[in-house]
Amino acid sequence: MLGDNNVALPAEWRDFLALTKPRVMSLVVFTALCGLLAAPGYIHPVMAFIAILCIAVGAGASGALNQWYEADVDAKMDRTSKRPLPDGRMERENALYFGVILGAFSVGIMAVFVNWISAGILAFSIFFYAVVYTIWLKRSTPQNIVIGGAAGAFPPVIGWAAVTGDISMLPILMFLIIFLWTPPHFWALALFMKTDYAKAGIPMLPVVAGQKTTRNQILLYSIILTPFVIAPWALGYTSYIYGAASIILSAIFLFLAVQIWRNDAINVEGMKPEKQMFAFSILYLFALFALMALDRQIL
Protein backbone atom coordinates (compact mmCIF):
# COMPACT_ATOMS: atom_id res chain seq x y z
CA MET A 1 0.00 0.00 0.00
CA LEU A 2 1.04 3.68 -0.26
CA GLY A 3 2.22 5.80 2.62
CA ASP A 4 0.71 9.14 3.65
CA ASN A 5 2.64 11.03 0.93
CA ASN A 6 1.92 8.48 -1.82
CA VAL A 7 5.41 7.08 -1.45
CA ALA A 8 5.89 3.33 -1.74
CA LEU A 9 6.44 1.63 1.58
CA PRO A 10 9.66 -0.37 2.09
CA ALA A 11 9.43 -3.65 0.22
CA GLU A 12 9.60 -6.97 2.05
CA TRP A 13 11.41 -10.08 0.84
CA ARG A 14 8.04 -11.46 -0.24
CA ASP A 15 7.66 -8.57 -2.65
CA PHE A 16 11.01 -9.29 -4.27
CA LEU A 17 10.03 -12.95 -4.49
CA ALA A 18 6.74 -11.95 -6.15
CA LEU A 19 8.70 -10.02 -8.78
CA THR A 20 10.26 -13.29 -9.94
CA LYS A 21 6.84 -14.81 -10.78
CA PRO A 22 7.35 -18.06 -8.81
CA ARG A 23 4.55 -19.94 -10.59
CA VAL A 24 6.01 -19.22 -14.00
CA MET A 25 9.48 -20.02 -12.66
CA SER A 26 8.34 -23.47 -11.55
CA LEU A 27 7.42 -24.42 -15.13
CA VAL A 28 10.69 -22.95 -16.42
CA VAL A 29 12.73 -24.92 -13.89
CA PHE A 30 10.84 -28.11 -14.60
CA THR A 31 11.25 -28.00 -18.39
CA ALA A 32 14.91 -27.03 -18.00
CA LEU A 33 15.47 -29.99 -15.67
CA CYS A 34 13.79 -32.29 -18.18
CA GLY A 35 16.06 -30.99 -20.93
CA LEU A 36 19.06 -31.61 -18.70
CA LEU A 37 17.94 -35.15 -17.81
CA ALA A 38 17.12 -36.01 -21.42
CA ALA A 39 20.57 -34.96 -22.64
CA PRO A 40 23.16 -37.65 -23.36
CA GLY A 41 26.37 -37.62 -21.38
CA TYR A 42 27.22 -36.88 -17.77
CA ILE A 43 27.12 -33.70 -15.77
CA HIS A 44 28.33 -33.52 -12.18
CA PRO A 45 25.39 -33.11 -9.76
CA VAL A 46 26.87 -29.86 -8.42
CA MET A 47 27.15 -28.46 -11.95
CA ALA A 48 23.60 -29.62 -12.69
CA PHE A 49 22.35 -27.81 -9.57
CA ILE A 50 24.21 -24.63 -10.56
CA ALA A 51 22.77 -24.81 -14.08
CA ILE A 52 19.18 -25.20 -12.86
CA LEU A 53 19.69 -22.48 -10.24
CA CYS A 54 20.98 -20.07 -12.89
CA ILE A 55 18.03 -20.84 -15.15
CA ALA A 56 15.64 -20.20 -12.23
CA VAL A 57 17.36 -16.92 -11.35
CA GLY A 58 17.35 -15.91 -15.02
CA ALA A 59 13.61 -16.59 -15.19
CA GLY A 60 13.20 -14.47 -12.06
CA ALA A 61 15.14 -11.66 -13.72
CA SER A 62 12.80 -11.82 -16.71
CA GLY A 63 9.78 -11.65 -14.41
CA ALA A 64 11.15 -8.66 -12.52
CA LEU A 65 11.98 -6.73 -15.71
CA ASN A 66 8.53 -7.58 -17.08
CA GLN A 67 6.82 -6.19 -13.96
CA TRP A 68 9.07 -3.12 -13.96
CA TYR A 69 7.98 -2.20 -17.48
CA GLU A 70 4.33 -3.21 -17.11
CA ALA A 71 3.54 -1.64 -13.74
CA ASP A 72 1.04 0.74 -15.35
CA VAL A 73 -0.73 -2.09 -17.20
CA ASP A 74 -0.73 -4.37 -14.15
CA ALA A 75 -2.49 -1.65 -12.16
CA LYS A 76 -5.45 -1.79 -14.57
CA MET A 77 -6.01 -5.55 -14.41
CA ASP A 78 -7.76 -7.31 -11.53
CA ARG A 79 -5.48 -10.33 -11.92
CA THR A 80 -2.27 -8.29 -11.46
CA SER A 81 -3.27 -5.18 -9.52
CA LYS A 82 -1.97 -6.59 -6.22
CA ARG A 83 1.55 -7.14 -7.48
CA PRO A 84 4.23 -5.16 -5.57
CA LEU A 85 4.58 -2.27 -8.05
CA PRO A 86 0.94 -1.43 -8.86
CA ASP A 87 0.04 -1.93 -5.20
CA GLY A 88 2.65 0.66 -4.20
CA ARG A 89 4.83 -1.66 -2.11
CA MET A 90 7.96 -1.01 -4.16
CA GLU A 91 9.54 1.70 -6.29
CA ARG A 92 9.81 0.87 -10.00
CA GLU A 93 13.56 1.50 -10.18
CA ASN A 94 14.13 -1.08 -7.44
CA ALA A 95 12.44 -3.70 -9.60
CA LEU A 96 14.61 -2.65 -12.55
CA TYR A 97 17.84 -2.91 -10.53
CA PHE A 98 16.74 -6.21 -9.04
CA GLY A 99 16.02 -7.68 -12.48
CA VAL A 100 19.29 -6.47 -14.01
CA ILE A 101 21.33 -7.81 -11.09
CA LEU A 102 19.59 -11.20 -11.18
CA GLY A 103 20.09 -11.45 -14.94
CA ALA A 104 23.78 -10.54 -14.84
CA PHE A 105 24.38 -12.90 -11.92
CA SER A 106 22.65 -15.87 -13.55
CA VAL A 107 24.40 -15.49 -16.91
CA GLY A 108 27.80 -14.84 -15.32
CA ILE A 109 27.66 -17.85 -13.01
CA MET A 110 26.41 -20.08 -15.85
CA ALA A 111 29.28 -18.97 -18.09
CA VAL A 112 31.97 -19.50 -15.44
CA PHE A 113 30.80 -22.76 -13.89
CA VAL A 114 28.85 -24.52 -16.67
CA ASN A 115 29.61 -23.45 -20.25
CA TRP A 116 29.36 -20.47 -22.56
CA ILE A 117 26.77 -22.03 -24.87
CA SER A 118 24.18 -22.45 -22.12
CA ALA A 119 25.05 -19.00 -20.72
CA GLY A 120 24.58 -17.39 -24.14
CA ILE A 121 21.17 -18.99 -24.65
CA LEU A 122 20.15 -17.96 -21.13
CA ALA A 123 21.19 -14.35 -21.81
CA PHE A 124 19.26 -14.32 -25.08
CA SER A 125 16.15 -15.78 -23.41
CA ILE A 126 16.17 -13.01 -20.78
CA PHE A 127 16.61 -10.38 -23.51
CA PHE A 128 13.85 -11.95 -25.61
CA TYR A 129 11.31 -11.97 -22.77
CA ALA A 130 12.16 -8.56 -21.35
CA VAL A 131 12.74 -6.61 -24.58
CA VAL A 132 11.28 -8.44 -27.59
CA TYR A 133 8.13 -9.71 -25.86
CA THR A 134 7.46 -7.27 -23.00
CA ILE A 135 8.62 -3.97 -24.49
CA TRP A 136 8.08 -4.53 -28.20
CA LEU A 137 5.42 -7.15 -28.91
CA LYS A 138 2.96 -7.31 -26.03
CA ARG A 139 1.36 -3.89 -26.53
CA SER A 140 1.81 -3.69 -30.30
CA THR A 141 0.40 -6.86 -31.88
CA PRO A 142 -2.16 -9.61 -31.20
CA GLN A 143 0.57 -12.02 -32.29
CA ASN A 144 2.45 -11.18 -29.06
CA ILE A 145 1.87 -14.66 -27.62
CA VAL A 146 2.80 -16.46 -30.85
CA ILE A 147 6.20 -14.81 -31.25
CA GLY A 148 6.77 -14.18 -27.56
CA GLY A 149 6.15 -17.84 -26.81
CA ALA A 150 9.75 -18.48 -27.82
CA ALA A 151 10.87 -16.91 -24.54
CA GLY A 152 9.33 -19.72 -22.51
CA ALA A 153 10.62 -22.38 -24.91
CA PHE A 154 14.33 -21.85 -24.24
CA PRO A 155 14.72 -23.56 -20.80
CA PRO A 156 14.92 -27.21 -22.01
CA VAL A 157 17.45 -26.12 -24.65
CA ILE A 158 19.54 -24.44 -21.95
CA GLY A 159 19.32 -27.54 -19.76
CA TRP A 160 20.43 -29.73 -22.67
CA ALA A 161 23.30 -27.40 -23.58
CA ALA A 162 24.47 -27.37 -19.96
CA VAL A 163 25.22 -31.10 -20.30
CA THR A 164 26.34 -31.38 -23.91
CA GLY A 165 27.67 -27.96 -24.82
CA ASP A 166 25.70 -28.09 -28.07
CA ILE A 167 22.17 -28.28 -29.51
CA SER A 168 20.72 -31.22 -31.45
CA MET A 169 17.33 -32.28 -32.80
CA LEU A 170 15.63 -33.39 -29.54
CA PRO A 171 16.07 -30.05 -27.71
CA ILE A 172 14.87 -28.31 -30.88
CA LEU A 173 11.73 -30.45 -30.74
CA MET A 174 11.34 -29.59 -27.04
CA PHE A 175 11.59 -25.92 -27.98
CA LEU A 176 8.98 -26.29 -30.73
CA ILE A 177 6.57 -28.17 -28.45
CA ILE A 178 6.54 -25.31 -25.93
CA PHE A 179 6.50 -22.69 -28.70
CA LEU A 180 3.42 -24.20 -30.36
CA TRP A 181 1.75 -25.07 -27.04
CA THR A 182 1.90 -21.47 -25.80
CA PRO A 183 -0.76 -19.88 -28.09
CA PRO A 184 -3.63 -22.30 -27.29
CA HIS A 185 -2.63 -22.27 -23.62
CA PHE A 186 -2.67 -18.46 -23.29
CA TRP A 187 -5.54 -17.81 -25.69
CA ALA A 188 -7.74 -20.13 -23.63
CA LEU A 189 -6.93 -17.90 -20.65
CA ALA A 190 -7.40 -14.74 -22.71
CA LEU A 191 -10.92 -15.78 -23.72
CA PHE A 192 -12.22 -15.70 -20.16
CA MET A 193 -9.93 -12.80 -19.18
CA LYS A 194 -10.86 -10.71 -22.21
CA THR A 195 -12.34 -7.86 -20.18
CA ASP A 196 -9.19 -7.51 -18.10
CA TYR A 197 -6.96 -7.34 -21.17
CA ALA A 198 -9.27 -4.87 -22.90
CA LYS A 199 -9.30 -2.63 -19.84
CA ALA A 200 -5.49 -2.64 -19.80
CA GLY A 201 -5.27 -1.88 -23.51
CA ILE A 202 -3.36 -5.07 -24.37
CA PRO A 203 -4.18 -6.27 -27.91
CA MET A 204 -4.73 -9.92 -27.09
CA LEU A 205 -6.36 -11.85 -29.91
CA PRO A 206 -9.88 -12.05 -28.35
CA VAL A 207 -9.83 -8.28 -27.84
CA VAL A 208 -8.84 -7.25 -31.37
CA ALA A 209 -10.07 -10.17 -33.51
CA GLY A 210 -12.98 -11.53 -31.50
CA GLN A 211 -13.76 -14.77 -29.75
CA LYS A 212 -14.62 -16.81 -32.87
CA THR A 213 -11.27 -16.08 -34.49
CA THR A 214 -9.49 -16.92 -31.25
CA ARG A 215 -11.29 -20.25 -30.97
CA ASN A 216 -10.38 -21.05 -34.58
CA GLN A 217 -6.74 -20.26 -33.85
CA ILE A 218 -6.72 -22.43 -30.72
CA LEU A 219 -7.92 -25.39 -32.78
CA LEU A 220 -5.43 -24.65 -35.59
CA TYR A 221 -2.42 -24.44 -33.26
CA SER A 222 -3.56 -27.55 -31.38
CA ILE A 223 -3.62 -29.49 -34.65
CA ILE A 224 -0.19 -28.16 -35.68
CA LEU A 225 1.23 -28.96 -32.24
CA THR A 226 0.23 -32.64 -32.28
CA PRO A 227 2.81 -34.03 -34.76
CA PHE A 228 5.62 -32.19 -32.97
CA VAL A 229 4.54 -33.74 -29.67
CA ILE A 230 4.63 -37.22 -31.20
CA ALA A 231 7.84 -36.56 -33.19
CA PRO A 232 10.34 -37.51 -30.42
CA TRP A 233 8.93 -41.04 -30.50
CA ALA A 234 8.36 -41.16 -34.26
CA LEU A 235 11.98 -40.14 -34.89
CA GLY A 236 13.32 -42.72 -32.45
CA TYR A 237 14.45 -40.43 -29.63
CA THR A 238 12.08 -42.01 -27.10
CA SER A 239 10.44 -45.37 -26.60
CA TYR A 240 6.83 -46.48 -26.98
CA ILE A 241 6.18 -45.33 -23.38
CA TYR A 242 6.45 -41.67 -24.37
CA GLY A 243 4.90 -42.43 -27.76
CA ALA A 244 1.74 -43.96 -26.33
CA ALA A 245 1.37 -41.28 -23.67
CA SER A 246 1.93 -38.45 -26.17
CA ILE A 247 -0.82 -39.81 -28.44
CA ILE A 248 -3.33 -40.19 -25.58
CA LEU A 249 -2.56 -36.79 -24.06
CA SER A 250 -2.68 -35.08 -27.45
CA ALA A 251 -6.04 -36.67 -28.19
CA ILE A 252 -7.42 -35.14 -24.99
CA PHE A 253 -5.84 -31.78 -25.85
CA LEU A 254 -7.39 -31.87 -29.33
CA PHE A 255 -10.78 -32.87 -27.89
CA LEU A 256 -10.74 -29.81 -25.63
CA ALA A 257 -9.67 -27.62 -28.55
CA VAL A 258 -12.64 -28.90 -30.58
CA GLN A 259 -14.95 -28.21 -27.62
CA ILE A 260 -13.67 -24.63 -27.52
CA TRP A 261 -14.08 -24.32 -31.29
CA ARG A 262 -17.70 -25.46 -31.00
CA ASN A 263 -18.45 -23.19 -28.05
CA ASP A 264 -20.11 -19.86 -28.81
CA ALA A 265 -20.40 -18.54 -25.27
CA ILE A 266 -19.77 -14.84 -24.83
CA ASN A 267 -19.94 -14.65 -21.04
CA VAL A 268 -17.31 -16.13 -18.75
CA GLU A 269 -19.93 -18.37 -17.12
CA GLY A 270 -20.31 -20.30 -20.38
CA MET A 271 -16.61 -20.79 -21.00
CA LYS A 272 -16.16 -24.12 -19.27
CA PRO A 273 -14.18 -25.68 -22.18
CA GLU A 274 -11.77 -22.72 -22.17
CA LYS A 275 -11.15 -23.11 -18.44
CA GLN A 276 -10.69 -26.86 -18.85
CA MET A 277 -8.22 -26.32 -21.70
CA PHE A 278 -6.17 -23.83 -19.69
CA ALA A 279 -5.96 -26.17 -16.69
CA PHE A 280 -5.27 -29.30 -18.73
CA SER A 281 -2.68 -27.56 -20.91
CA ILE A 282 -0.42 -27.11 -17.88
CA LEU A 283 -0.78 -30.77 -16.91
CA TYR A 284 -0.24 -31.72 -20.57
CA LEU A 285 3.11 -29.96 -20.80
CA PHE A 286 4.31 -31.21 -17.40
CA ALA A 287 3.38 -34.79 -18.29
CA LEU A 288 5.00 -34.70 -21.73
CA PHE A 289 8.32 -33.39 -20.46
CA ALA A 290 8.37 -35.63 -17.41
CA LEU A 291 7.75 -38.67 -19.60
CA MET A 292 10.36 -37.56 -22.10
CA ALA A 293 13.01 -37.16 -19.40
CA LEU A 294 12.06 -40.43 -17.71
CA ASP A 295 11.99 -42.27 -21.02
CA ARG A 296 15.47 -41.04 -21.91
CA GLN A 297 16.78 -42.08 -18.50
CA ILE A 298 15.60 -45.67 -18.88
CA LEU A 299 16.48 -46.18 -22.56
UniProtKB/TrEMBL annotation:
Keywords for the protein's UniProt record, in alphabetical order: Cell membrane, Heme biosynthesis, Membrane, Transferase, Transmembrane, Transmembrane helix
Q: Where are the transmembrane segments?
A: 24-43, 49-69, 95-113, 119-137, 144-163, 169-192, 218-235, 241-261, 277-294
Under Enzyme Commission nomenclature, its number is 2.5.1.141
Query: Subcellular localization, per the record?
Result: Cell membrane
- Cross-referenced InterPro entries: Protohaem_IX_farnesylTrfase, UbiA_prenyltransferase, UbiA_sf
Which pathway is it part of? Porphyrin-containing compound metabolism; heme O biosynthesis; heme O from protoheme: step 1/1
Note whether DNA-binding occurs among the keywords: no
What broad class of enzyme is this? Answer: transferase
Can you cite a GO biological process for this protein?
heme O biosynthetic process
* UniProt topology in membrane: Multi-pass membrane protein
Write down the Pfam families for this protein, in alphabetical order: UbiA (PF01040)
Q: Which GO terms describe its cellular component?
A: plasma membrane
* Family that this chain belongs to: Belongs to the UbiA prenyltransferase family. Protoheme IX farnesyltransferase subfamily.
Question: Other comments?
Answer: Carbon 2 of the heme B porphyrin ring is defined according to the Fischer nomenclature.
Its name, as the record gives it, is Protoheme IX farnesyltransferase
Say which species the protein is native to. Sphingorhabdus lutea
